[in-house]
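Tutorial, part two.
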Amino acid sequence: MSHTAHIPSHRKPRRSASKLAVRAGVAGGVLSTLAMAGTASASPAAEPVTETLEMPVLNMDLSTEVSTAVAKAADNTRAAALQGELSSLEETARTGAAAEAKQAKEQAQKKAEQKAKEEAERKAAAERATRGTERTDLSTKSASTGSGSGSSVTTPSAPATGNAATIVNFARAQVGKAYVMGATGSSAYDCSGLVQAAYRAAGIKLDRTSQDQSLAGRSVSLSALQPGDILYWGGKGSAYHVAIYVGGGKFVGAQNPSTGIVERSLSYDKPSGAVRVL
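Running the prediction step on this input gives:
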């Protein structure tokens, strides 16, 4: 066994390579200074050196600080990129939500308008059905009674001539075509669209709606109708349906989507009143 085996090692720990390099550089600088000072003292004309320079000892790990700075800069760059991406996503989400809200509003408005039209048609059909339970054959009543309400008795009318014939012929030519709300021809009509088109064929201009058409010309009794007269249902000025009297106790009208344009007896659906434009 070695005589020194029991003696613990008193060797100092090794310093890092970077610290040794710094210290070596400092030591070299000091030795160079001393050498220059010695040379100067050997010269007779040189003055003695009376100042001692102490060089600081650098004690820092430069590689660690550089790595930390680089990592911090990379983190800042990633954070800025992430923030920009989040801002872009938020703006896209806001734009998309606004577009969806606008589209939903437009669809809701269209549905409400369509529902209102359907409800108006349903009410009109219900009113006609209610009045249908009280219908009376006006021609039969005229033959069986010589008195009573003159407005409920229709007298025979002479054959249509002139503008009246044009209006009646046009109306009858449309029988069998479709009823479409708002349509004015030529493959489909609503009630006032048909009346307006028939009068236009005779060169006569009428307003578009059933309410306005019930105010046209002058009022006539249902007992004294003539071909070409305008029949209306509802109040005068607030009528919800119109048709054309074609003679013989009959009318032609665009009734509803299920029947289309038909020719019917007045007893089918007794009108509220009539006006004469011719």
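Residues 40-46, 132-155 have pLDDT under 50 and may be disordered. In part three we will examine how such features are distributed along the chain.
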